[in-house]
Q: What sequence folds into this?
């Protein structure tokens, strides 16, 4: 099979020419890519010219999971690779907010600003082994700060300013950054949010920070609250660093040198800091975006995201391909449900990524964007499963000339496990196939592969972008428990999938308890920390459940404190606390009183079993007798599901 003018067809031709390899179709190519990991990944290395960047001793010196050892002896730098492929006749970045015209940033300016900020970081004593944090929206300064941090060999992490300070501190305290980049505010839904007071709170809780780089976006000429009252923190103006005349210098670091820290959702406790390496991210996202998504140098690549979601990193990596990345700092539904498509039209975006829930909301609103989306050739959809009707709406009404690519991956690998290919037909309601190099399978509870029926998504061989480690997890205990507790030596991702005989993949939702609103993963532990601090609340349980037809339910069950009534004032108090300390998207659909929260005998809340009950499973099928406290409450959740119309098979028996 061939696909003219596609990246993957060119890769096949290269394999034939350089390696003498011929694969009849995608299935054969995928099987080779997972059976011969050294052969495949060395081909990716050479195809994308990394052999001119660095040599290496061995592609895969140790294939053990966790702990696989990739490209031993290689040295490279993520920022260098992002900044060396751009064509100066096209912009590197297009930035647009809810107000104002798009700003085009040439490659030359991007390189100069990275050089200036990197030189500033070096002067502040930042280098390999140090950490730099951002409290920034999706703006050019965030991209520059990431690349400058990578250029000096330090490790980057960022939180979006729509997070409450408690959630940010839970993350950044673990990172112990030396420098904090913070914006004075952001716009969302037609409103402006001043974040200088929150920055002061963050600095009060981050004793390791010695330097604040203040990014003036909204209030540059207006008086306002102090950024910090800490005398030991030196404040620097972003403009002074970014405009500095300095050479562009990179620290070429080992393949597994830490690049950035992404954060788990905090489902089972304090969010985990997931550390990825320069080399693993470079080769993985060259492959995933190039051979999977099909990104090209002439593309304008927009992904609606916040800096806290891994797809922000996935979008920034478009620079690895010389593509123009499009940054939108604003609400997807401002001034109406077509907000993202207005931005796509204004910027000439050719590849647009959104969460499945956004597409479903557009379909349900009956919208038919009367816009010029003629440049759009690819719509990327991720975050959750999508109903068949939405697939048809995208193809027939939203973007008839574009290809709809559904992708499934995660923060854990910062990439795609299963997605699309130009060599395959589109499937309604399914992902076309496992991604190249991903030894994906569906397993039953006994570790047996299943085809055509639902099982756990597993990866049976290592990937270069699997985490190096978790922050503070010196003995790798949390890392092993996170992915390898069920099937030793095999990665369990936490999704229910059906792998069909034609290799297409159907995702049924998370098999763990991660909340997922509009494609943004959130942690139940973050919500519990806020709700259960309220004096009138004794306990709580939040569930995020994918429903038949593409719906999503997020109820919060609350146990009032002894002697406290559950009334409208308590409900309002809970909502206000969540909005203030977390974000509006953390506010549940409904808040319901419950007698108690069922738990395991070791004290863990029964999030996953209750989720499955809300989705229609029988209580007896999801919880073994004698393993939980208050099993008498489980039929109540089934009755609640039936009353609410959540599960198609909900029954109290």
A:
């Amino acid at each position: 099979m061939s696909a003219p003018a596609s990246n993957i067809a060119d890769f096949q031709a290269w394999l034939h020419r350089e390696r003498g390899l011929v694969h009849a179709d995608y299935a054969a190519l995928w099987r080779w890519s997972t059976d011969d990991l050294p052969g495949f990944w060395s081909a990716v290395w050479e195809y994308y010219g990394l052999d001119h960047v660095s040599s290496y001793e061995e592609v895969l010196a140790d294939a053990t999971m966790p702990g696989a050892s990739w490209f031993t002896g290689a040295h490279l730098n993520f920022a260098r690779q992002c900044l060396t492929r751009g064509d100066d006749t096209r912009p590197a970045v297009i930035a647009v907010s809810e107000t104002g015209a798009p700003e085009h940033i040439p490659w030359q300016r991007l390189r100069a600003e990275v050089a200036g900020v990197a030189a500033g970081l070096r002067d502040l004593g930042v280098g390999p082994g140090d950490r730099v944090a951002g409290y920034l929206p999706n703006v050019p300064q965030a991209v520059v700060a990431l690349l400058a941090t990578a250029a000096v060999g330090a490790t980057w992490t960022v939180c979006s300013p729509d997070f409450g300070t408690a959630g940010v501190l839970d993350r950044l305290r673990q990172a112990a950054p030396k420098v904090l980049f913070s914006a004075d505010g952001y716009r969302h839904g037609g409103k402006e949010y001043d974040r200088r007071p929150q920055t002061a709170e963050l600095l009060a809780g981050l004793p390791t920070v010695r330097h604040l780089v203040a990014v003036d976006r909204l209030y540059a000429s207006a008086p306002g609250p102090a950024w910090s009252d800490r005398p030991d923190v030196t404040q620097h103006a972003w403009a002074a660093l970014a405009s500095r005349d300095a050479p562009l210098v990179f620290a070429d670091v080992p393949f597994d040198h830490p690049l950035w820290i992404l954060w788990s959702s905090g489902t089972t406790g304090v969010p985990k800091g997931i550390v990825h390496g320069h080399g693993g991210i470079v080769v993985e996202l060259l492959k995933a975006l190039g051979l999977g998504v099909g990104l090209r140098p002439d593309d304008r690549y927009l992904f609606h995201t916040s800096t806290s979601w891994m797809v922000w990193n996935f979008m920034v990596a478009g620079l690895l391909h010389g593509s123009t990345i499009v940054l939108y700092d604003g609400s997807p539904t401002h001034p109406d449900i077509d907000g993202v498509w207005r931005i796509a039209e204004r910027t000439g975006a050719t590849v647009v990524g959104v969460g499945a829930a956004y597409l479903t909301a557009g379909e349900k609103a009956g919208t038919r964007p009367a816009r010029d989306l003629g440049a759009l050739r690819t719509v990327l959809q991720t975050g959750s499963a999508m109903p068949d009707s939405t697939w048809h709406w995208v193809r027939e009404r939203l973007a008839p000339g574009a290809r709809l690519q559904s992708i499934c991956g995660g923060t854990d690998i910062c990439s795609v496990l299963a997605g699309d290919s130009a060599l395959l037909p589109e499937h309604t309601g399914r992902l076309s196939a496992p991604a190249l190099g991903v030894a994906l399978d569906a397993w039953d509870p006994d570790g047996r592969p299943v085809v055509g029926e639902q099982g756990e998504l597993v990866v049976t061989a290592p990937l270069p972008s699997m985490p190096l480690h978790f922050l503070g997890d010196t003995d790798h205990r949390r890392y092993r428990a996170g992915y390898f507790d069920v099937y030793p030596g095999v990665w369990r991702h936490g999704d229910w999938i059906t792998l069909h005989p034609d290799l297409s993949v159907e995702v049924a939702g998370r098999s763990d308890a991660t909340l997922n609103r509009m494609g943004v993963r959130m942690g139940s532990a973050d919500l519990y920390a806020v709700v259960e601090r309220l004096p009138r609340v004794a306990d709580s349980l939040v569930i995020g459940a994918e429903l038949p037809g593409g719906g999503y339910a997020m109820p919060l069950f609350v146990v009032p404190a002894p002697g406290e009534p559950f009334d409208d004032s308590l409900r309002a108090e809970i909502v206000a606390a969540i909005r203030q300390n977390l974000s509006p998207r953390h506010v549940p659909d409904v808040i319901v009183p419950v007698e108690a929260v069922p738990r395991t005998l070791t004290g863990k809340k029964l999030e996953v079993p209750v989720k499955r009950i809300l989705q229609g499973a029988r209580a007896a099928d999801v919880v073994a007798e004698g393993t939980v406290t208050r099993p008498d409450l489980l039929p109540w959740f089934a009755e609640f599901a039936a009353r609410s119309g959540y599960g198609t098979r909900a029954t109290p028996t």
Summary: Residues 46 and 52 are 8 Å apart (CA to CA). The radius of gyration is 24 Å.
